[in-house]
Amino acid sequence: MTTQVSDIIIHHGEKQRLHSHPLEEYFQKMRLADPSYVKPFPMKCTSAWRGYQALWEIKDQRLYLVDVNTALWYDDEEEERGAALLKVFPDSNGEVLADWFSDVLHIPQGEPAQRSYGGRGGFWTHNLTISVREGMVVDESVEVQALPSRS
Prior knowledge:
This protein is mostly beta strands. 12% of the residues lie in helices and 36% in strands. It is built from 2 helices and 10 strands, in the order E-E-H-E-E-H-E-E-E-E-E-E. The strands form 3 sheets. A 5-stranded mixed sheet has the order 2-1-3-4-5. The relative contact order is 0.20.
């Protein structure tokens, strides 16, 4: 399994990896409302099965989708900033409040304590969790995780 490209989140002015995929929840809700709905970003490389990398930002206790990058492969043409976002949200003004998202964001902290070459590419000893309800941040905490045992 190929390590997947993480989404990125700007939190307290700092860009960090995001090990959650809020935009996938939006696509799932669209498919439930309309079974013929097709996500506009096909998979182009094995490191991005989702077909994109989203940029998120938390501002004023709200989660915003700021941009979507679909140029993830060496021969992809770079889209104009915001063009992919407009494919999903044609009426957006450059950022979209993620009011469809009610779940937990996972942001790994520090360097990985153990590397792997599948999924998200490693295990971090600290994980910032941010609980979001309809796009609004309701709680934030840091979890300390024990290293997985080697069998």
